[in-house]
Amino acid sequence: MCGRYRRTTSEEELARRYHIPIPKELDLPISYNIAPSQKVLTIRFNPETGERSLDALQWGLVPYWAKDPKMAYKTINARVETVDTAPSYRQPFKKRRCLIPADGFYEWKKVVGGKIPYSIGMKDDVPFVFAGLWEGWKDPSTQEWLHTCTIITGEPNELVAQIHTRMPMILGEEHHEAWLTNQTGKEVLVPFPVAAMRAWPISPRVNSPKNNDQDLLVPVQNGFC
Fold first, then answer.
1. What's the number of domains the chain is made of?
2. Known catalytic residue at 155
3. Which of 8, 83, 104, 132 is most buried, most CB within 10 Å of its CB?
C-alpha cells in the first residue's frame, strides 16, 4: 500500500514542470508527512479547455454511489490488479484519472523486533507523480460536492521489494498525457525503474502525521518502531 508520502515542491514549480497554468487561488502548503483524509495536490485534465490543472482533492476516494463518505479510509489505494473492475474504481479508471505529485513516499519494513520506516524517492531528488483516480460525491443532505482521489499500487520493483510487498505506481513523463486523457490502459502501470530510485531508513517519528518537518528525512541506523 501507499499510506504516507511527502510533497515538498511548490505549486508554482510543479506547474512549470508539468505544463500547467499557475493557479491563482490554490494554496496547499508543502508537507513532509501527508496522510489519508488530508487534502492533496493533484493534476487533472479538462477536456473542454484542453488544459491541465492543479487541484486540491481529499485523499481517500468516495464513489459517486456511496451513501456516506466514511468508506474513504478503505479507498486510499486502488490495486492495479482490479482497478478496472472493482466497483469503487471502474468508472474513474475509464473517465476520471489524475496524477499525484510527490517528492518521496514512506514504507515500513517488518523485521524481528518491530518495523523500520524507510524514505523512498529518486536519486536526483526530483519530483515525480503517482498514477491516481478521482471522483465526485454529492452529499445528499447538503447538496455539496466532495472531490476525492486514490493512489494506484502494484507489485514493487527490486528496491521496494526489500521493504514492502507493494508500491505506488509511478508514471514517467512520457505516459502523463495518455494517462490523463484516458488513452492508455493498465499497461503503463508497472514498477518504476529501480536504477533511478533510492531508499534509506528514517526515524519512527514519521509514524505520526503530527510530525511534519525536514528532519524526518535524516538517515538513522536503527529506526525501529
1. 1
2. no
3. 132
Identify whether 118 is part of a domain: no
> Among 2, 11, 135, 149, which one carries the catalytic annotation?
2
CATH code for position 147: 3.90.1680.10
Residue 141 resides in a domain: yes
Burial class of 76 by CB neighbour count within 10 A (0 to 12, 13 to 18, 19+) = buried
The grid cell for 206 is: 514519521
67 located within any domain: yes
* pLDDT tens sequence across 49-98: 999 999 999 999 999 999 999 988 899 999 999 999 999 999 999 999 99
Q: Within 13 Å, how many C-alpha atoms sit on residue 40's CB side?
A: 35
Sequential DSSP letters for 33-65: EE-TTSEEEEEEEETTTTEEEEEEEEES---TT
Is residue 40 classed exposed, middle or buried when 0-12, 13-18 and 19+ CB atoms within 10 A define those classes? Answer: buried
177 assigned to active site: no
**Residue 24 belongs to domain spanning:** 5-107+124-192
| 213 in any annotated domain | no
| Rounded Cα gap, residues 128 and 106, in angstroms | 14
| Residue 87 neighbours by CB distance under 10 Å | 9
With 0.70 as the threshold, say if the pTM is over it: yes
Average pLDDT over residues 32-55: 96
Candidates 12, 48, 51, 107; catalytic one = 107
